[in-house]
Write a structure and sequence with these properties.
alpha/beta, 41% helix, 283 residues, 9 helices
Length: 283
Amino acid sequence: MNRFSTSLLGEAKTLLLATDGSIFSDGALQEAIFFGQACGARLIALHVVKIDVESLKSANARVTRAQQEIAPYMEDIRKMARDSGVECETVVVGSSVPEHAIVEQARMREADVIIMGRHGRAGRLYLMVGSMTSKVIGLGFPMVLMLPKDFTMTGSHVLVAVDDSPNSRLAVEEALSLGICCVTLERLTFVAVARRESGLPEAEKMVEDICARGREKWPRIHFEAVAGVGHASNIIVRAAEERNVDMIMIGGMVSGPLPKMFGGRVTKEVCGWAHCAVLVVTA
């Protein structure tokens, strides 16, 4: 399998990597450069300096110091990108609200995807409420890719969490379109979760209908429908682990009326608990 012949980000042309310069950003950096190659996309590496509400002079001084401190790291990113044939720009800005700055920079530079690392794997009682990745996801950027430290994607198996919300339907369409540009994609698993046994038949029908569409469109790809009852995050993450998937695709924070799986809690839990990459898709 040639890893560089795949693209799980579709036809993205501009990628924004939000990095804090720590080892937890290393996996995101490596995959960002890989996706730059796979998509033929340019890469923007962004570092946001947290500044307090203070005078403009002191804020500028703090940003200048941070630019000097992180300059060797940013140069390493530029060198890695050059060596990989990826166009790369590095940016350092200051903000009192870093998550807003990340999204503003992504929109201003017309990025298709924001790529971020994850600081460890969250415990079952931790919802990532204070994490930067969680805050950025909550701002509703169209595509945010979260990557655990040292995780490598092969592009062979994607799991899609399904409900009837607009964001989930968009995630399903994005997944079904991967057959165009992701030649290494072998399997797509669709998972729906009902809160009670009475909702299981509807969940089963939802994923079976999606898989039937997929099989008709992409006969070369294996489609699997999974439906369960219980805590949505647990079932999604467990299904992903059991199948050793590359990536989970999940809708963003706004959920639909049935079965109301993906209020922000579930999306955040999946991002915090998953062993693999998570792509959050928002309409």
